[in-house]
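Sample intake — Ral guanine nucleotide dissociation stimulator-like
Collected from: Ursus maritimus
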Amino acid sequence: MKTNEPCVLWTNRADLLKKRVEHLVPAFLGRDFSYISTFLGTYRAFATTQEVLDLLFTRYGCVLSDCDDLGGAQKQCNT
């Protein structure tokens, strides 16, 4: 690469992750399953599962279980 050529810089990791995670719910609602599949297949290269969940819960709220058993009734809360 020549020194006078423009260089494309990647957005920092946190911004990239935030943008990708914020598109997950609209992609799901819009039935863009190719985006979801691609995200789920690649996110571990740039984030942990906990980071993705934290961003989703921060952006869209969290789901709490009303029951002790798995698969019980759930309610949504916004934090």
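Post-analysis note: The longest helix spans residues 49-60.
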